[in-house]
Design brief:
Largest sheet of chain A: 7 strands, antiparallel
Largest sheet of chain B: none
Order of helices and strands of chain B: HHHHH
CATH architecture of chain B: Up-down Bundle
CATH class of chain B: Mainly Alpha
CATH class of chain A: Alpha Beta
Helix content of chain B: over 70%
CATH superfamily of chain B: Hemerythrin-like
Shape of chain A: globular
CATH topology of chain A: Chemotaxis protein chec
CATH superfamily of chain A: CheC-like
Distance between the termini of chain B: 37 Å
CATH architecture of chain A: 3-Layer(aba) Sandwich
Structural class of chain B: mainly alpha
Oligomer: heterodimer
Structural class of chain A: alpha+beta
């Protein structure tokens, strides 16, 4: 997969975490990444269409999601419910939207579909059988992962 | 939801409206998340929906008028974001009417609204302030 369309997602994650949560994101060098969602994880899948097709999966540990929503709401949050997953879906949507805008400036015209929430042990079909790039990221409130399976459409 | 000084654009009318939006959405989230029967929370839910549908339009109109007054180059793109948001609030309002303000759906709306508003004020609207600063430096 080309760095040209990987970097916008990485950069958008750094920017959105900084602006919305005041949290710094750095690349993690860890290689031990699982295929399926762990027991204490929630995933958000965003489908990409246009010049690039495929999907992006954002994986967050439970405790990190609760902390993110606590930062946003200013309230103690102890359960992952519709309010929490919807906020998480919107954050992932914003990251992907910003990445797609950045791709547009690099001459890739893409669009995204609304976020879909995955629960433990789920694996999105769009990641099956495709070349998947996994980006582990570190923050002070936990480790997240971005899984990317994007193919370039040849015109 | 905490209002932060860094969100301020330096345009009094717009900043006051942003603060009011933060205050209202905060109250809404607090009301939804507190202990108690769902039925008891419904008046606040309905009040917030009515407020969002009218105040957001007023705010977006004022913000867009300001952008035009300064020849903001990102005006069309920003207006498109406003239109999409108005359409989404409208779709939720329609579903609330049809599905009888189901708790799960309202919680979904609140989560999305909170994250959308923070990003819009902390990121999208800051581009307007950045434009004004850059334009000032160019003069």
């Amino acid at each position: 997969m080309k760095a040209e369309y990987i970097n916008p997602f990485y950069q958008a994650t750094i920017d959105v975490f900084k602006l919305m949560l005041d949290i710094d994101v750095i690349r993690d060098q860890s290689k031990a990444l699982q295929e399926m969602l762990g027991k204490k994880e929630v995933g958000v899948v965003i489908e990409v269409t246009g010049d690039l097709t495929g999907c992006i999966l954002y994986r967050f540990p439970d405790h990190m999601i609760l902390e993110m929503v606590k930062i946003m709401s200013g309230m103690e949050i102890d359960t992952i419910d519709s309010f929490v997953t919807s906020a998480l879906g919107e954050v992932s949507n914003i990251i992907s939207g910003n990445a797609v805008s950045s791709l547009f400036n690099r001459n890739y015209k893409c669009d995204i579909k609304p976020p879909r929430i995955l629960i433990e042990d789920d694996k999105p079909i769009c990641l099956d059988g495709n070349q998947v790039l996994r980006i582990p990221l570190n923050t002070d409130i936990g480790k997240l992962q971005i899984h990317m399976a994007l193919k370039e459409n040849i015109h | 939801m905490m209002w932060k000084e860094k969100y301020r654009l330096g345009v009094d009318k717009i900043d006051e409206q942003h603060e009011e939006l933060f205050r209202r959405v905060s109250e809404f989230v607090l009301a939804l998340r507190k202990e108690g029967q769902w039925e008891a929370k419904l008046p606040k839910v309905k009040e917030t929906m009515e407020f969002m549908q009218s105040y957001v339009v007023t705010h977006f109109n004022d913000e867009e008028a300001y952008q035009q007054s300064i020849d903001y180059t990102g005006f069309e793109q920003h207006r498109e974001i406003h239109e999409q948001f108005k359409a989404e609030v409208g779709q939720f309002a329609e579903r609330f009417e049809q599905e009888g303000f189901a708790e799960d759906l309202v919680q979904q709306f609140a989560g999305k609204l909170m994250a959308w508003l923070i990003n819009h004020v902390a990121a999208s609207d800051q581009k307007i302030a950045e434009y004004v600063r850059t334009k000032g430096e160019g003069n």
